[in-house]
Amino acid sequence: MQTEILPISAPNALNRALETLRAGELVAFPTDTVYGLGTLAFNSEGAAKIYQAKKRQPEKALPILLGEIEQLKLVTISVPEMAQKLAASFWPGALTLILPKHSDIPKAVSALETVGVRIPDHAFVRELFRAAGPMAVSSANLSGHSNPITAGDVYTQLNGSLPLILDGGRVSGGVPSTVVDCTGKDIQILREGSISTKMIWEALAES
User: Fold this and answer.
1) Most Cβ neighbours (<10 Å): which of 42, 84, 131, 188?
2) Which residues of the chain fall short of a pLDDT of 50?
3) For 90, how many CA atoms within 13 A lie in the half-sphere containing its CB?
4) Which residues have a Cβ under 8 Å from the Cβ of 160 and sit 6 or more positions away?
5) Pairing between strand 64-65 and 114-118?
6) Residue 99's beta-bridge partner residues?
7) What is the pLDDT of residues 71-111, one digit of tens each?
8) What angle do CA 112, 118, 121 make, to 5 degrees?
9) pLDDT for residue 73
10) Residue 43 C-beta-side C-alpha neighbours within 13 Å
11) What CA–CA distances, in Å, run from 108 to 41, 44, 62?
12) Rounded to whole angstroms, how far apart are CA atoms 152 and 157?
């Protein structure tokens, strides 16, 4: 497979990405943390291609990225009040919320009863997700290798494994999203990233 690199500033970038995704293929793109590798969230075959491209173990669930908060109802069956508060405080941004999974999400994306969801702080990819719908996304690297922060990094690791890389320049990289499980009576912070534990509890304490 030939891998094309297309700047996100190109007039046809969005349409080219949508065509590729609707054909069941993968697209890599910049986010507010690292470059992501994504497919439509309801596409089992596309999810399998992510695992294959990354050489990733299939038991690891794929996070879902959204373009707007209204898309939550497509991927989760409920949004607890705690999760609503955190989303209002930190989305778009580097916060992943673990929520009860909608039955439409295929097992290839998450074999669990839950799914990780976030809205990235990147205008172009939010526009892409609004147009394409929710997307299952992993970092655009070989499993265990360094996280990609440029389109060139993605090309070096995944050339030939996907048809399209959208080049948005260098991204911040480094610090991952904070992951908060909102499925129980009390929240659990599973991973502290750029949003600190203190910031999480302060947001929840606000009326």
Assistant:
1) 42
2) none
3) 29
4) 1, 2, 3
5) parallel
6) 115
7) 999 999 999 999 999 999 999 999 999 999 999 999 999 99
8) 160
9) 96
10) 24
11) 10, 5, 8
12) 9
Res 172: pLDDT: 85
Q: By C-alpha distance, which of 127, 110, 120, 101 is closest to 194?
A: 120
Q: What is the DSSP string of 84-99?
A: HHHHHHH-SSSEEEEE
Interatomic CA distance for residues 75 and 41, integer angstroms = 8
Question: CB under 8 Å to 62, separation ≥6 — which residues?
Answer: 47, 50, 109, 110, 136, 137, 138
Q: How far, in whole angstroms, is CA 20 from its chain's centroid?
A: 17
Closest CA to 141 of 150, 159, 154, 125: 154
| The pLDDT of residue 175 | 79
Q: What is the dihedral of CA 53, 149, 139, 89, to 10 degrees?
A: -160
Token pair belonging to 113:
């009863």
E strands present in 77-177: 95-100, 114-118, 135-139, 164-167
- Residue 68 CA to residue 9 CA, distance in Å, equals 21
Joined tokens for residue 42 = 């309801």
- pLDDT for the residue numbered 190: 96
